[in-house]
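Thread title: Can someone regenerate the structure for this chain?

I was given the following input by a collaborator and told the matching structure tokens would be attached. They weren't. Posting the sequence so someone can regenerate them.
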Amino acid sequence: MRRPGPVLIAATMLWSVPANAQQGTGSLPEPPQAGQGREDGGETGSDPAIFAEPIIVTGTARRAVPLTTPSDVDVIDGADKDRIASAGLGAFARRFAGVDSLSTGDQVGNVVIRGLSGNRVRVLSDELSLDFQQYGIRHPANIDPFIAERIEVVRGSSSILYGSDAIGGAVNVIPKRPPAVGRGESHLGGRATFGYQSGFRQTTAALTMEAADGPLGAVGTLVLRDSGGLVVPEVPNALETDNPRDPLVTGEVPFTDYVQQNWDVSVGYDTAGGPIILRWEAYRSDQNYVLPDPPAPGSGDPLRPGGLGQDLENDIVRLFGEFDLDPDLVLVPSLSYVRNLRIAGAGGADPVPRSQLPEGADIDILRENITARIDLKHGSGFAGLDGRIGAEAVFIDQESFGPTALTPGGTINRLALFALEEARFGRFIVNFGGRIDYIRTEADPERTAQPDFFANVSPELLEQEYTIVTGSLGAVYRVSDTFSLTGNLSRGFRAPTIFELFVNGVHGGVAAVQRGDPTLEAETSLSSDVSLRYDDGRTRFKITGYINDIDNFIFLADTGETNPGGLSIFQVDQQNAALQGFDVEASHRMTDWAELRGVVEYVDGELDDGKRVPLLPPLKFRAELELTQDRLGPARDAFFTVGVDYAAAQDATSIIEPFIQFDTPPPPFGTASTDSYALVDLQAGARFGNIDVTLGVENLLDEVYRDFLDTYKIITLGVGRNVTVSLSTRF
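Best answer:
Regenerated them for you:
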């Protein structure tokens, strides 16, 4: 994985920005059309010191470049994306300022945007909202980042376009589209990739094929991942040292293995009016989570690690088109079906590993989702405005099998109307929009396997309805072709999930009992940010400050009680919350072959009663120095990066922090709080003929550390020295 590199922290604050595909001239007043080069008539990328600025599509009124939109969007694509080996989406997004990864091994990397995660960050597959039961902090986004052609990350509320769960931002995984060629012409090509990561004992093999015959095209990707499990520094564990802050297990960590088979196939036909595309994306993951396996009372057996198994399946079938009704009007209708299945073993004593699934399943939840959406994108011929208007209908059916329901069966229906528009007044660019949502959530005892699940819930509370109106206003002032000032004011919302309303049982993956509240109100937020952006092609920086006030913030809090098995009991509650912070990213190309980049980020937040908002990342600095050469002997496109990643210490000070019970022994191991650390990474690569070779070492010094946003901190350490290799060839 390509991470930032060793530069003085002071230099980081003066210069730098994460390595991404957004480096550009900053002088493009309008997004270029396909095939266009720079405004000066030169070929894009012909000057090694100048980079084409990307066109962004996520969270914006229309296609735009970063200096011309209020939205705070970053993009990763091309070689930058290919150099990251992780199966977790968070590893790709975390390279940007204000964005982090909530991880559990390599297979789980949930995106954290400015302190918000889970049901407050909407994950999209080509702008289709995914629903992967993200109420669990260890439930990964059921999508393989390898299939993406590009990944776009939007910071700040995106509720106008994407509705509930986008209160903190959105991540759009955009796959490769089927190719099309002229009539009578044909095309066939592909790419094969093999990779290995020693820190996870993981091999990855992937194949992408694409073909076209005139207007008919197809593209498909198959990804196979097989991990033997996490490897951390082998230091004495808590049972050997009697220090309760030490981990329970080190070295080769058992029950952290996983196997994945994921694929994506699209077929398209390019009509005279625009393309029609049918896509099937599938995600299959069988994984273990390592948990403490406490001895039965009075047995005399020792405490040891155990394995909790989980099988995940997710299928997306989507039919959509993009039809040019006239030069200023594009109609985008879409119909999608999503099937999501989660099968998990029991937690507590004697947890059930994946080798015993599905027969030993304790939790079995099936969600089926049908989404119909229509967008009408228009140019300035429509009342002088550029933007989009649309409608969306979502119908979700959930069924809960297994002896432990945890979350019930039921239905969730959503209806929405929205519009996001852009107006230009000389150097001012203004975006504004509005949305109205109706959401109905109904728990159904007949779809819930556990008969007494609703014993303490009044029948009239089984159905909840929410009608919510939201709006946004953003502006850009172009001081010059290279410098802009931006500001945003957005009203976002999030409806309580069926899990938060009715959860009632042991959630083995987080070692706790969880209980819901059917009287929850919808979350609403008022978020604001201001930003300074500069980009002259060599030097680039962005400084952003933000405030996010959230009414009725929903969280799980430790009640201080335990069940008969000794598991802590957490209760869903809500209060108002306020988050504020800043992020800085900058880069400077010192020569045509050397570039310095860096990131600084900080966020803090508290509830009305003074308790800290849970799962906030610590203060972080990231920096990287990259050296590149177009030609180096037989090598082409050679690069070498060296980086440092620093995180400050972070204490878990609140009863609402997940795993807070591990800071007050018993248990005699683990911690919810973490110390500061710094990791050094190296990576190098080049193309030899038609083969791309990438070699890297993460955590070069084999640092002993724990990341505050790593849920394995309660039982083990962060990954040790991780040697990575990747070979890729196109044909």
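The longest helix spans residues 9-14.
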